[in-house]
Amino acid sequence: MDTTLVPGNSLITATPEEGRQLAVKMARLVIKATQQDEAVRDKLRDVYANDASMLLQVGQVVATEFATIAAANNYWRK
Amino acid sequence: MDTTLVPGNSLITATPEEGRQLAVKMARLVIKATQQDEAVRDKLRDVYANDASMLLQVGQVVATEFATIAAANNYWRK
Amino acid sequence: MDTTLVPGNSLITATPEEGRQLAVKMARLVIKATQQDEAVRDKLRDVYANDASMLLQVGQVVATEFATIAAANNYWRK
Amino acid sequence: MDTTLVPGNSLITATPEEGRQLAVKMARLVIKATQQDEAVRDKLRDVYANDASMLLQVGQVVATEFATIAAANNYWRK
Amino acid sequence: MDTTLVPGNSLITATPEEGRQLAVKMARLVIKATQQDEAVRDKLRDVYANDASMLLQVGQVVATEFATIAAANNYWRK
Amino acid sequence: MDTTLVPGNSLITATPEEGRQLAVKMARLVIKATQQDEAVRDKLRDVYANDASMLLQVGQVVATEFATIAAANNYWRK
Fold it and tell me: Which Pfam families does the UniProt entry name for this protein (chains A, B, C, D, E, F) (predicted)?
Protein backbone atom coordinates (compact mmCIF):
# COMPACT_ATOMS: atom_id res chain seq x y z
CA MET A 1 0.00 0.00 0.00
CA ASP A 2 1.68 3.20 -1.13
CA THR A 3 -0.90 5.72 0.04
CA THR A 4 -0.11 7.22 3.44
CA LEU A 5 -3.14 6.42 5.60
CA VAL A 6 -2.38 8.43 8.77
CA PRO A 7 -0.88 11.87 8.02
CA GLY A 8 2.00 12.52 10.44
CA ASN A 9 1.68 8.91 11.64
CA SER A 10 -0.01 10.08 14.85
CA LEU A 11 -3.54 10.46 16.22
CA ILE A 12 -2.48 13.19 18.64
CA THR A 13 -3.51 16.74 17.74
CA ALA A 14 -3.30 20.05 19.58
CA THR A 15 -7.00 20.87 19.37
CA PRO A 16 -10.45 19.36 18.60
CA GLU A 17 -10.51 21.34 15.36
CA GLU A 18 -7.26 19.73 14.21
CA GLY A 19 -8.56 16.34 15.35
CA ARG A 20 -11.64 16.83 13.24
CA GLN A 21 -9.54 17.78 10.22
CA LEU A 22 -7.50 14.62 10.76
CA ALA A 23 -10.72 12.57 10.83
CA VAL A 24 -11.77 14.02 7.48
CA LYS A 25 -8.31 13.37 5.98
CA MET A 26 -8.11 9.80 7.27
CA ALA A 27 -11.54 9.05 5.83
CA ARG A 28 -10.46 10.40 2.43
CA LEU A 29 -7.17 8.49 2.44
CA VAL A 30 -8.95 5.13 2.79
CA ILE A 31 -10.98 6.02 -0.29
CA LYS A 32 -7.78 7.05 -2.08
CA ALA A 33 -6.10 3.74 -1.19
CA THR A 34 -9.13 1.84 -2.49
CA GLN A 35 -9.58 3.84 -5.70
CA GLN A 36 -6.15 4.99 -6.80
CA ASP A 37 -7.21 6.63 -10.08
CA GLU A 38 -7.48 10.35 -9.34
CA ALA A 39 -9.81 11.05 -12.25
CA VAL A 40 -12.26 8.40 -11.05
CA ARG A 41 -12.08 9.77 -7.49
CA ASP A 42 -12.83 13.29 -8.72
CA LYS A 43 -15.87 12.02 -10.60
CA LEU A 44 -17.12 10.04 -7.60
CA ARG A 45 -16.52 12.95 -5.25
CA ASP A 46 -18.81 15.00 -7.47
CA VAL A 47 -21.41 12.24 -7.09
CA TYR A 48 -21.42 12.05 -3.31
CA ALA A 49 -21.12 15.82 -2.78
CA ASN A 50 -24.41 16.23 -4.65
CA ASP A 51 -26.35 13.38 -3.09
CA ALA A 52 -28.11 13.93 0.25
CA SER A 53 -27.87 10.33 1.42
CA MET A 54 -24.19 10.01 0.53
CA LEU A 55 -23.37 13.28 2.28
CA LEU A 56 -24.93 11.75 5.37
CA GLN A 57 -22.74 8.66 4.82
CA VAL A 58 -19.71 10.99 4.76
CA GLY A 59 -20.92 12.44 8.06
CA GLN A 60 -21.21 8.94 9.53
CA VAL A 61 -17.68 7.94 8.53
CA VAL A 62 -16.16 11.16 9.85
CA ALA A 63 -18.08 10.80 13.14
CA THR A 64 -16.66 7.29 13.55
CA GLU A 65 -13.09 8.32 12.78
CA PHE A 66 -13.40 11.31 15.10
CA ALA A 67 -14.56 9.12 18.01
CA THR A 68 -11.22 7.30 17.86
CA ILE A 69 -9.14 10.46 17.50
CA ALA A 70 -11.01 12.18 20.34
CA ALA A 71 -10.43 9.21 22.66
CA ALA A 72 -6.74 9.17 21.69
CA ASN A 73 -6.48 12.79 22.81
CA ASN A 74 -8.45 12.27 26.03
CA TYR A 75 -11.00 14.59 24.46
CA TRP A 76 -8.57 17.50 24.75
CA ARG A 77 -9.69 17.97 28.37
CA LYS A 78 -7.60 20.50 30.25
CA MET B 1 -10.16 23.50 4.82
CA ASP B 2 -11.75 26.84 5.56
CA THR B 3 -14.94 25.66 7.24
CA THR B 4 -14.71 25.59 11.04
CA LEU B 5 -15.47 21.99 12.01
CA VAL B 6 -15.71 22.25 15.82
CA PRO B 7 -17.50 25.44 16.99
CA GLY B 8 -15.60 26.93 19.94
CA ASN B 9 -12.82 24.39 19.29
CA SER B 10 -13.95 22.36 22.32
CA LEU B 11 -16.07 19.30 23.05
CA ILE B 12 -16.85 20.47 26.58
CA THR B 13 -20.34 21.85 27.19
CA ALA B 14 -22.21 22.91 30.33
CA THR B 15 -25.18 20.57 29.82
CA PRO B 16 -26.39 17.53 27.85
CA GLU B 17 -28.71 19.81 25.88
CA GLU B 18 -25.78 21.96 24.75
CA GLY B 19 -23.79 18.80 24.01
CA ARG B 20 -26.60 17.57 21.80
CA GLN B 21 -26.75 20.89 19.97
CA LEU B 22 -23.00 20.65 19.40
CA ALA B 23 -23.45 17.14 17.96
CA VAL B 24 -26.02 18.47 15.48
CA LYS B 25 -23.77 21.38 14.52
CA MET B 26 -20.67 19.22 14.07
CA ALA B 27 -22.61 16.82 11.84
CA ARG B 28 -23.77 19.74 9.69
CA LEU B 29 -20.30 21.28 9.43
CA VAL B 30 -18.84 18.10 7.91
CA ILE B 31 -21.52 18.28 5.23
CA LYS B 32 -20.75 21.97 4.73
CA ALA B 33 -17.04 21.22 4.32
CA THR B 34 -17.83 18.51 1.77
CA GLN B 35 -20.39 20.50 -0.23
CA GLN B 36 -19.37 24.13 -0.04
CA ASP B 37 -22.07 25.51 -2.36
CA GLU B 38 -24.81 26.87 -0.10
CA ALA B 39 -27.52 26.64 -2.76
CA VAL B 40 -26.77 22.96 -3.35
CA ARG B 41 -26.78 22.30 0.41
CA ASP B 42 -30.18 24.01 0.77
CA LYS B 43 -31.59 21.83 -2.00
CA LEU B 44 -30.15 18.65 -0.50
CA ARG B 45 -31.36 19.59 2.97
CA ASP B 46 -34.84 19.80 1.53
CA VAL B 47 -34.34 16.28 0.14
CA TYR B 48 -33.26 14.62 3.39
CA ALA B 49 -35.74 16.52 5.57
CA ASN B 50 -38.56 14.99 3.53
CA ASP B 51 -37.27 11.44 3.25
CA ALA B 52 -37.94 9.01 6.10
CA SER B 53 -34.85 6.90 5.57
CA MET B 54 -32.52 9.90 5.31
CA LEU B 55 -34.00 11.45 8.46
CA LEU B 56 -33.06 8.21 10.20
CA GLN B 57 -29.55 8.54 8.74
CA VAL B 58 -29.41 12.04 10.28
CA GLY B 59 -30.41 10.47 13.59
CA GLN B 60 -27.63 7.90 13.26
CA VAL B 61 -24.95 10.49 12.59
CA VAL B 62 -26.06 12.71 15.47
CA ALA B 63 -26.17 9.71 17.84
CA THR B 64 -22.58 8.85 16.88
CA GLU B 65 -21.30 12.41 17.32
CA PHE B 66 -23.15 12.71 20.63
CA ALA B 67 -21.52 9.53 21.99
CA THR B 68 -18.12 11.20 21.66
CA ILE B 69 -19.25 14.51 23.14
CA ALA B 70 -21.00 12.78 26.05
CA ALA B 71 -17.85 10.78 26.86
CA ALA B 72 -15.77 13.96 26.66
CA ASN B 73 -18.01 15.49 29.30
CA ASN B 74 -18.05 12.41 31.54
CA TYR B 75 -21.74 12.28 30.74
CA TRP B 76 -22.31 15.48 32.75
CA ARG B 77 -22.46 13.35 35.92
CA LYS B 78 -22.59 15.43 39.07
CA MET C 1 -32.73 25.54 17.69
CA ASP C 2 -36.04 25.69 19.53
CA THR C 3 -36.71 21.97 19.90
CA THR C 4 -35.56 20.53 23.23
CA LEU C 5 -33.12 17.76 22.33
CA VAL C 6 -32.51 16.14 25.74
CA PRO C 7 -35.70 15.87 27.86
CA GLY C 8 -34.89 16.85 31.44
CA ASN C 9 -31.42 17.95 30.26
CA SER C 10 -29.88 14.83 31.79
CA LEU C 11 -28.76 11.37 30.68
CA ILE C 12 -29.24 9.91 34.16
CA THR C 13 -32.28 7.70 34.67
CA ALA C 14 -33.45 5.50 37.54
CA THR C 15 -33.71 2.28 35.52
CA PRO C 16 -32.69 0.65 32.20
CA GLU C 17 -36.32 0.86 31.08
CA GLU C 18 -36.36 4.63 31.59
CA GLY C 19 -32.96 4.85 29.88
CA ARG C 20 -34.35 3.03 26.89
CA GLN C 21 -37.36 5.35 26.75
CA LEU C 22 -34.98 8.31 26.83
CA ALA C 23 -33.03 6.79 23.90
CA VAL C 24 -36.23 6.54 21.86
CA LYS C 25 -37.21 10.11 22.72
CA MET C 26 -33.79 11.57 21.95
CA ALA C 27 -33.78 9.82 18.58
CA ARG C 28 -37.20 11.30 17.77
CA LEU C 29 -36.23 14.80 18.87
CA VAL C 30 -33.36 14.96 16.38
CA ILE C 31 -35.83 14.12 13.62
CA LYS C 32 -38.20 16.76 14.99
CA ALA C 33 -35.43 19.37 14.98
CA THR C 34 -34.54 18.46 11.38
CA GLN C 35 -38.10 18.34 10.05
CA GLN C 36 -40.13 20.87 12.01
CA ASP C 37 -43.41 20.47 10.12
CA GLU C 38 -45.57 18.14 12.20
CA ALA C 39 -47.76 17.08 9.26
CA VAL C 40 -44.70 16.03 7.25
CA ARG C 41 -43.29 14.14 10.24
CA ASP C 42 -46.58 12.26 10.70
CA LYS C 43 -46.54 11.25 7.05
CA LEU C 44 -42.91 10.12 7.20
CA ARG C 45 -43.49 8.24 10.44
CA ASP C 46 -46.18 6.30 8.62
CA VAL C 47 -43.61 5.50 5.93
CA TYR C 48 -40.88 4.14 8.22
CA ALA C 49 -43.30 2.29 10.53
CA ASN C 50 -44.44 0.24 7.53
CA ASP C 51 -41.07 -0.44 5.94
CA ALA C 52 -38.99 -3.36 7.23
CA SER C 53 -35.61 -1.84 6.38
CA MET C 54 -36.44 1.53 7.93
CA LEU C 55 -37.74 -0.12 11.11
CA LEU C 56 -34.32 -1.75 11.35
CA GLN C 57 -32.75 1.68 10.86
CA VAL C 58 -34.87 2.91 13.81
CA GLY C 59 -33.51 -0.01 15.82
CA GLN C 60 -29.95 0.94 14.90
CA VAL C 61 -30.36 4.57 15.95
CA VAL C 62 -31.98 3.63 19.27
CA ALA C 63 -29.24 1.06 19.97
CA THR C 64 -26.61 3.76 19.41
CA GLU C 65 -28.34 6.32 21.63
CA PHE C 66 -28.88 3.70 24.32
CA ALA C 67 -25.18 2.77 24.37
CA THR C 68 -24.39 6.33 25.46
CA ILE C 69 -27.17 6.52 28.04
CA ALA C 70 -26.25 3.12 29.50
CA ALA C 71 -22.60 4.17 29.87
CA ALA C 72 -23.70 7.42 31.51
CA ASN C 73 -25.59 5.40 34.11
CA ASN C 74 -22.78 2.89 34.67
CA TYR C 75 -25.19 0.36 33.24
CA TRP C 76 -27.40 0.70 36.33
CA ARG C 77 -25.14 -1.79 38.14
CA LYS C 78 -25.99 -2.12 41.80
CA MET D 1 -45.10 4.06 25.74
CA ASP D 2 -46.81 0.87 26.81
CA THR D 3 -44.39 -1.66 25.33
CA THR D 4 -41.80 -2.90 27.83
CA LEU D 5 -38.44 -2.05 26.24
CA VAL D 6 -36.01 -3.82 28.61
CA PRO D 7 -37.27 -7.25 29.75
CA GLY D 8 -36.61 -7.62 33.49
CA ASN D 9 -35.56 -3.96 33.58
CA SER D 10 -31.90 -4.99 33.80
CA LEU D 11 -28.91 -5.40 31.48
CA ILE D 12 -27.26 -7.96 33.79
CA THR D 13 -27.40 -11.59 32.68
CA ALA D 14 -25.79 -14.76 33.99
CA THR D 15 -24.06 -15.72 30.74
CA PRO D 16 -23.05 -14.38 27.30
CA GLU D 17 -25.74 -16.57 25.73
CA GLU D 18 -28.43 -14.92 27.86
CA GLY D 19 -26.90 -11.53 27.10
CA ARG D 20 -27.16 -12.25 23.40
CA GLN D 21 -30.79 -13.31 23.77
CA LEU D 22 -31.48 -10.06 25.59
CA ALA D 23 -29.86 -8.13 22.73
CA VAL D 24 -32.18 -9.83 20.23
CA LYS D 25 -35.22 -9.14 22.40
CA MET D 26 -34.35 -5.49 23.00
CA ALA D 27 -33.89 -4.97 19.26
CA ARG D 28 -37.31 -6.50 18.60
CA LEU D 29 -39.04 -4.45 21.31
CA VAL D 30 -37.97 -1.16 19.73
CA ILE D 31 -39.58 -2.32 16.50
CA LYS D 32 -42.68 -3.35 18.43
CA ALA D 33 -42.90 0.06 20.10
CA THR D 34 -42.55 1.77 16.71
CA GLN D 35 -45.02 -0.44 14.84
CA GLN D 36 -47.66 -1.53 17.33
CA ASP D 37 -49.91 -3.43 14.87
CA GLU D 38 -48.99 -7.10 15.26
CA ALA D 39 -50.32 -8.08 11.83
CA VAL D 40 -48.13 -5.45 10.14
CA ARG D 41 -45.09 -6.56 12.18
CA ASP D 42 -45.65 -10.19 11.12
CA LYS D 43 -45.79 -9.16 7.48
CA LEU D 44 -42.64 -7.03 7.78
CA ARG D 45 -40.81 -9.76 9.67
CA ASP D 46 -41.49 -12.02 6.71
CA VAL D 47 -39.96 -9.36 4.47
CA TYR D 48 -36.69 -8.92 6.36
CA ALA D 49 -36.26 -12.63 7.11
CA ASN D 50 -36.18 -13.28 3.36
CA ASP D 51 -33.96 -10.41 2.29
CA ALA D 52 -30.19 -10.81 2.49
CA SER D 53 -29.42 -7.13 3.04
CA MET D 54 -32.05 -6.73 5.76
CA LEU D 55 -30.84 -9.85 7.57
CA LEU D 56 -27.44 -8.17 7.67
CA GLN D 57 -29.13 -5.07 9.08
CA VAL D 58 -30.63 -7.27 11.80
CA GLY D 59 -27.12 -8.55 12.51
CA GLN D 60 -25.84 -4.98 12.78
CA VAL D 61 -28.51 -3.92 15.25
CA VAL D 62 -28.01 -6.99 17.45
CA ALA D 63 -24.23 -6.48 17.41
CA THR D 64 -24.71 -2.91 18.61
CA GLU D 65 -27.15 -3.85 21.38
CA PHE D 66 -24.88 -6.70 22.47
CA ALA D 67 -21.87 -4.37 22.78
CA THR D 68 -23.74 -2.44 25.47
CA ILE D 69 -24.97 -5.54 27.29
CA ALA D 70 -21.53 -7.15 27.21
CA ALA D 71 -19.93 -4.02 28.68
CA ALA D 72 -22.63 -3.90 31.38
CA ASN D 73 -21.66 -7.43 32.39
CA ASN D 74 -17.90 -6.78 32.30
CA TYR D 75 -17.89 -9.28 29.44
CA TRP D 76 -18.75 -12.08 31.89
CA ARG D 77 -15.04 -12.35 32.78
CA LYS D 78 -14.43 -14.70 35.68
CA MET E 1 -34.92 -19.39 20.90
CA ASP E 2 -33.37 -22.77 20.09
CA THR E 3 -30.36 -21.58 18.11
CA THR E 4 -27.20 -21.26 20.21
CA LEU E 5 -26.11 -17.63 19.82
CA VAL E 6 -22.69 -17.66 21.54
CA PRO E 7 -20.65 -20.82 20.77
CA GLY E 8 -19.03 -22.05 24.00
CA ASN E 9 -21.07 -19.46 25.91
CA SER E 10 -17.96 -17.28 26.33
CA LEU E 11 -16.37 -14.25 24.66
CA ILE E 12 -12.89 -15.23 25.83
CA THR E 13 -10.56 -16.69 23.21
CA ALA E 14 -6.87 -17.60 23.23
CA THR E 15 -5.88 -15.42 20.29
CA PRO E 16 -7.10 -12.56 18.05
CA GLU E 17 -7.55 -15.05 15.21
CA GLU E 18 -9.91 -17.14 17.31
CA GLY E 19 -11.67 -13.99 18.45
CA ARG E 20 -12.21 -12.99 14.84
CA GLN E 21 -13.59 -16.43 14.01
CA LEU E 22 -15.98 -16.08 16.94
CA ALA E 23 -17.13 -12.69 15.59
CA VAL E 24 -17.93 -14.27 12.23
CA LYS E 25 -19.80 -17.14 13.88
CA MET E 26 -21.81 -14.91 16.20
CA ALA E 27 -22.83 -12.75 13.24
CA ARG E 28 -24.01 -15.82 11.34
CA LEU E 29 -25.92 -17.25 14.31
CA VAL E 30 -28.08 -14.14 14.60
CA ILE E 31 -29.04 -14.58 10.95
CA LYS E 32 -29.73 -18.26 11.61
CA ALA E 33 -31.97 -17.41 14.56
CA THR E 34 -33.87 -14.88 12.42
CA GLN E 35 -34.24 -17.09 9.34
CA GLN E 36 -34.45 -20.68 10.54
CA ASP E 37 -35.05 -22.30 7.14
CA GLU E 38 -31.67 -23.62 6.00
CA ALA E 39 -32.61 -23.68 2.31
CA VAL E 40 -33.62 -20.01 2.43
CA ARG E 41 -30.40 -19.12 4.25
CA ASP E 42 -28.31 -20.90 1.61
CA LYS E 43 -30.07 -18.98 -1.13
CA LEU E 44 -29.61 -15.64 0.65
CA ARG E 45 -25.98 -16.40 1.43
CA ASP E 46 -25.46 -16.81 -2.30
CA VAL E 47 -27.04 -13.39 -2.78
CA TYR E 48 -24.86 -11.48 -0.33
CA ALA E 49 -21.64 -13.32 -1.26
CA ASN E 50 -22.03 -12.03 -4.81
CA ASP E 51 -23.05 -8.46 -4.06
CA ALA E 52 -20.34 -5.88 -3.38
CA SER E 53 -22.45 -3.69 -1.10
CA MET E 54 -23.72 -6.62 0.97
CA LEU E 55 -20.21 -8.00 1.38
CA LEU E 56 -19.30 -4.63 2.84
CA GLN E 57 -22.32 -4.94 5.16
CA VAL E 58 -20.93 -8.32 6.28
CA GLY E 59 -17.63 -6.59 6.97
CA GLN E 60 -19.41 -3.93 9.04
CA VAL E 61 -21.25 -6.46 11.18
CA VAL E 62 -18.12 -8.53 11.83
CA ALA E 63 -16.14 -5.39 12.72
CA THR E 64 -18.79 -4.46 15.28
CA GLU E 65 -18.93 -7.94 16.83
CA PHE E 66 -15.14 -8.08 16.93
CA ALA E 67 -14.91 -4.77 18.79
CA THR E 68 -16.84 -6.34 21.67
CA ILE E 69 -14.87 -9.59 21.66
CA ALA E 70 -11.54 -7.74 21.50
CA ALA E 71 -12.51 -5.57 24.49
CA ALA E 72 -13.61 -8.69 26.40
CA ASN E 73 -10.14 -10.12 25.88
CA ASN E 74 -8.31 -6.91 26.77
CA TYR E 75 -7.13 -6.96 23.18
CA TRP E 76 -4.99 -10.03 23.89
CA ARG E 77 -2.28 -7.71 25.23
CA LYS E 78 0.56 -9.63 26.85
CA MET F 1 -12.39 -21.43 8.04
CA ASP F 2 -9.13 -21.59 6.11
CA THR F 3 -8.60 -17.89 5.46
CA THR F 4 -6.35 -16.21 8.03
CA LEU F 5 -8.45 -13.40 9.49
CA VAL F 6 -5.87 -11.52 11.61
CA PRO F 7 -2.45 -11.25 9.91
CA GLY F 8 0.27 -11.98 12.48
CA ASN F 9 -2.45 -13.01 14.94
CA SER F 10 -2.03 -9.74 16.85
CA LEU F 11 -3.68 -6.32 17.03
CA ILE F 12 -0.51 -4.66 18.28
CA THR F 13 1.39 -2.52 15.76
CA ALA F 14 4.37 -0.20 16.05
CA THR F 15 2.64 2.87 14.61
CA PRO F 16 -0.79 4.31 13.72
CA GLU F 17 0.07 3.91 10.04
CA GLU F 18 0.67 0.18 10.50
CA GLY F 19 -2.49 -0.05 12.58
CA ARG F 20 -4.45 1.55 9.77
CA GLN F 21 -2.97 -0.88 7.25
CA LEU F 22 -3.98 -3.74 9.53
CA ALA F 23 -7.55 -2.35 9.66
CA VAL F 24 -7.72 -2.34 5.85
CA LYS F 25 -6.34 -5.90 5.67
CA MET F 26 -8.68 -7.26 8.33
CA ALA F 27 -11.66 -5.73 6.53
CA ARG F 28 -10.58 -7.38 3.27
CA LEU F 29 -9.98 -10.78 4.88
CA VAL F 30 -13.57 -10.98 6.13
CA ILE F 31 -14.74 -10.41 2.56
CA LYS F 32 -12.28 -13.06 1.36
CA ALA F 33 -13.58 -15.56 3.92
CA THR F 34 -17.16 -14.83 2.83
CA GLN F 35 -16.51 -14.95 -0.93
CA GLN F 36 -13.69 -17.41 -1.51
CA ASP F 37 -13.71 -17.26 -5.34
CA GLU F 38 -10.92 -14.88 -6.29
CA ALA F 39 -12.38 -14.11 -9.72
CA VAL F 40 -15.69 -13.07 -8.17
CA ARG F 41 -13.89 -10.93 -5.57
CA ASP F 42 -11.91 -9.15 -8.30
CA LYS F 43 -15.11 -8.38 -10.16
CA LEU F 44 -16.86 -7.10 -7.03
CA ARG F 45 -13.84 -5.05 -6.01
CA ASP F 46 -14.12 -3.32 -9.38
CA VAL F 47 -17.76 -2.59 -8.56
CA TYR F 48 -17.22 -1.00 -5.16
CA ALA F 49 -14.07 0.90 -6.20
CA ASN F 50 -16.14 2.71 -8.82
CA ASP F 51 -19.24 3.42 -6.75
CA ALA F 52 -19.30 6.49 -4.49
CA SER F 53 -21.68 5.04 -1.91
CA MET F 54 -19.80 1.76 -1.64
CA LEU F 55 -16.47 3.56 -1.27
CA LEU F 56 -18.04 5.33 1.69
CA GLN F 57 -19.12 1.92 3.02
CA VAL F 58 -15.48 0.82 2.76
CA GLY F 59 -14.53 3.90 4.74
CA GLN F 60 -17.09 3.03 7.41
CA VAL F 61 -15.83 -0.53 7.82
CA VAL F 62 -12.19 0.54 8.04
CA ALA F 63 -13.06 3.25 10.58
CA THR F 64 -14.77 0.63 12.75
CA GLU F 65 -11.89 -1.85 12.53
CA PHE F 66 -9.40 0.91 13.25
CA ALA F 67 -11.25 1.98 16.41
CA THR F 68 -10.58 -1.47 17.87
CA ILE F 69 -6.95 -1.59 16.77
CA ALA F 70 -6.28 1.92 18.07
CA ALA F 71 -7.75 1.03 21.47
CA ALA F 72 -5.65 -2.15 21.56
CA ASN F 73 -2.55 -0.03 21.09
CA ASN F 74 -3.57 2.61 23.65
CA TYR F 75 -3.70 4.96 20.68
CA TRP F 76 0.09 4.74 20.34
CA ARG F 77 0.40 7.42 23.04
CA LYS F 78 3.98 7.97 24.16
Answer: HTHP
The domain locations on chain B are: 37-71
Q: Average pLDDT for residues C34-57, to the nearest whole number? A: 98
Instruction: Provide DSSP, F43-59.
Output: HHHHHHTT-HHHHHHHH
Chain A residues in contact with F66 by the CB 8 A cut-off are 65, 68
Q: What is the DSSP string of C2-56?
A: -S-SSGGG----SSHHHHHHHHHHHHHHHHHHH---HHHHHHHHHHHTT-HHHHH
Structural contact between residues D31 and C55, judged by C-beta atoms closer than 8 angstroms: yes
Q: Which residues, including other chains, have CB under 8 Å from residue F1's CB and lie 6 or more apart?
A: E21, E24, F33
Q: Is B71 exposed, middle or buried (0-12, 13-18, 19+ CB in 10 A)?
A: middle
Chunked into runs of 10 residues, chain F (78 residues) has average pLDDT values of 92 98 98 98 98 98 98 96
User: Which backbone phi and psi does C75 adopt, to 5 degrees?
Assistant: 60, 20
Is chain C in touch with chain B: ≥3 Cβ pairs within 8 A? yes
CB atoms within 10 A of CB E78: 5
Across the interface, which of E10, E48, E67 has its CB nearest the CB of D56? E48
Say if residue C9 is exposed, middle or buried (CB neighbours under 10 Å; 0-12, 13-18, 19+): middle
